[in-house]
Specification:
4-stranded parallel β-sheet; alpha/beta; Rossmann fold; single chain
């Protein structure tokens, strides 16, 4: 049996606004409430569960808030792709670089210092031994450093397929 909210109000109340067809004011108000509830129910259910996604409900793509990067990229062949992942020295940037390397992409890690970048590269190579990782020095807070990075990348004649900007975490 369908709930009252499963039907548009004109099916429940008839065309005039009440079950008896008399159009009484309280029934008209109830009709409007049912119409509103039905529209809200339709909007929520058709929008991939707008209220459900933060709690792990999967959308039309099959992925949700709890999907991992490895799940999302399963079956992806990135062997012919070159990616620059900023912010790859920690957090979501590091995870993005790891998964891109896992899928075969050549990943360039811009790091504020070569030392910090090489530490990240080392830890990622431990996790993905076949990875193609390169570290280049770039300090995002310095426009001249960004320009030098761009010049250096352009001179390598590599084709850039993916530019992922993962902002660095701010420490207070």
């Amino acid at each position: 049996m369908k709930s009252l909210l499963s039907y548009p109000s004109r099916q429940v109340f008839g065309q005039r606004g009440s079950r008896s067809g008399g159009g009484a004011a309280p029934c008209l108000m109830l009709e409007r409430v049912v119409d509103y509830c039905w529209l809200v129910e339709e909007a929520v259910s058709s929008a991939m569960g707008l209220l459900g996604w933060p709690w792990g409900r999967r959308g039309p793509s099959g992925f949700g808030a709890r999907s991992t990067a490895e799940e999302v990229t399963a079956g992806v062949d990135a062997t012919n792709l070159t990616a620059i992942v900023t912010g790859a020295t920690n957090g979501i940037g590091k995870e993005t670089a790891r998964v891109l390397a896992l899928r075969g992409a050549e990943v360039i890690i811009p790091a504020r210092t070569l030392e910090s970048g090489l530490k990240v590269k080392e830890s990622l190579v431990d996790q993905v031994p076949s990875s193609k990782l390169h570290v280049m020095e770039m300090d995002m807070s310095s426009l001249s450093s960004v320009r030098n990075f761009a010049r250096s990348f352009n001179s390598s004649h590599k084709h850039l397929n993916i530019l992922m900007y993962a902002p660095p975490s701010l420490k207070h």
